[in-house]
Amino acid sequence: MDLKIRKHAETYIIDVNGEMDLYNSYKLKELVMKMLEKKVEKFIINMENVDYIDSSGIGALIYICSTIKKMNLRLMICNIHGSVKKVIELTKLMGYFPIAGTVEDAIQKIVTP
Amino acid sequence: MPDFFLTLINNSFWAKGLSALVLLAYLRKIGPRLEIPVLGEFRSMVYVLLATDLALFLVPWIWAFPVLQGMGILYFHHRVLGVSSPNTKVSPWFWILGVPTAVVGVVGPILLWPLWLGALGPAVLLTLWIMFAVKLYAVSEFNTERASVVLASRRSLIQAMLGLQVVSLIMAPWGGYLNPLVQMLVFPLANLAHTWALSYWERTVEADKSRHLGTLEKNLESLFEFMIAIGNAISEKLEMDKVLDFVVKSAVKATNADGGAVFLVDEFDDVLKVKAVEGDFPPPYQVPPKVKLKIKDLANYFQSTPIPLDKTIVGECALTGQGIYVRDTRDDERMVQNAQLDQIYIASIILVPLMQGTKVFGVLAVVSRRGNYLFSADHYSQIRTFADYTSLTINSLFTYLQLLEKQEMEREVGIAAEIQGQLLPSQLPRVSSISLAAFSQPAKGVSGDYYDIINVRKGQILLAVCDVAGKGIPASLVMVMIRTIIHLVAHQPGMSVSRILDIVNWGIAGKVSLDRFATAALLSYDFAEHRLEYSNAAHHPLLIYRAGTKTFETLDTEGIPIGLEKKTKYNQLHTVLHPQDIVVLYTDGIIEAMNDQGTQYSLESLQQVILAHSDLPPEKLKRTIIEDMNGFVGKAKQHDDQTFLLMKVDG
Q1: Closest residue of B to A88, CA-based?
Q2: For a Cys-Cys bond, which of A42, B119, B478, B581 suits A11, CB 3.0-4.6 Å?
């Protein structure tokens, strides 16, 4: 898994590339925690290039999501598709995660809550 | 006899010929040591002089002589300059003025022009010489490579040549040009000056070479030291900060710099931060006027101010991934502020990127703050070597660390596998009116899946399937907690499956890290009433095979995974089972089992096997399902645990 960060105004977009599984999901968690330390307030996690996620990956997303919620900051997860979407649906977390279609939608939703 | 002797001595040819021979002898002596193109030019010039003298001896065209010789000498000077500094070109004025003069010098005597016209040649030569001298004096070590040789020799060159030109100008019209004193002293001395310049140049080249060799040796030595130190760092404990500190120190030492620094790229802010500083390293960019006053403020400012990637020379280096070498800060507009202000004075700077793969993760920089000590191209290549090696080392260290982490994780998984072995029921309870079968296979050593079959009381049985996120000891502990709670509450009277899930969730949520959530499904079956109750916490729906209609049904309830929110309440559904009905509880590892082509086994396949073999007892049906699934998957490696429970109503 490979993580890239880009910036759109105040919003940080994390592009996740590759599989989110037991052996690397912690990286995303660590990155977001680091960003929180640096007072980043608006996050978008772009899952466009993630084709596989296991329960550890979902776990990482839950952890990130709840931490950000607790701090009253903003998060959007976008471009979930295929088996990733299936897993999230199956675990009944579609309502739990703040989900947007594309990156643009996510930016829109973050700017106008 | 004395008359003949006087004539002989008065004839310029002997004196000139003698001085030319002395020169040739001298050249022969130093010749083997010179490996420079100018030598050939110089030697042929002496031959030309000798030849013109011989011609003059036979056909005394006085005016041709000073012009031809002077042109030769000027050309030679340009060659010296040209070789010592490739940037200096022979000025076109040299040809524009020199060629007509030569023509006048040759044609004049034939046409028997008056003497004063003949003096025109030396006069133009003098002008040319002054031009040349001006040009020579424009050379400085900042605009010319190997300026040192020109600087050291130009005074004597100019003085000797000026003397020669003045003498020829004054003497020529009055025939004094044939004066043996002039011939014997002035000309040979002027010629010797060239030879001296030549050998000086050669010495400089040699000194340069040996210095270069010395630098290479030192470079190798410091690299060697560096490699040993890095090796030690690995065998003890890797600390990135220490490695970087060491890199800066080595770089400063190797280049004899006044200061060095490492900047690291901040992962998501697009800025560079100062990580390690050695010696005296002023900010290589414009600082606000307030800060400039105190050295201490300046250091604080430098340490605490991140540098945007698109600004300053440091940012440029990180952004482009290219090394930057500024020999003299006065010549580079990016560094002008440092050349002007004493507090942040930098004379010379080298910046090179530190790479991890193709990504720039930092910048290594060294500065000189002494105006008389500028970094050379050697220093630049040395720092580059350093940075390359550092990048290489840090790359392998990262890989090594990742490997260690993975090993650690695998070891933990092994321990967890043992814990888990104790959790799963060692044998299935034997009960009347239903038959059971269970299958669970971990993907990598330890399973995140947990199943249980509990004989709650006579006539009622509880089946549980649970999939905990993650693996290893933390996941196993969550599994232990869930199992304990289920076992504690399942036996209590009036307990429903949804209530059990509520309690499990209540007990887990907030107690464990959020990424250790679990999906779970609970099923209880009452033998007397044939009543099945089912509650689901984000697990796969329950699959029921109806023997009567040979069709499948699914049961599902709402509810997010266990462990996320304390307040979560779960629902339950119930149905009545008939003889030969089969219920299947499974985890995603079953229906998502993948073959080489990336196709999943799917719920449909599972249903087809069950449909085709519904008459088999659960234990045999289990084996058939496993065979079918394995046949589908082939040799593809599975990365999820596989678990399913079968329950068939007897009769």
Answers
A1: B538
A2: A42
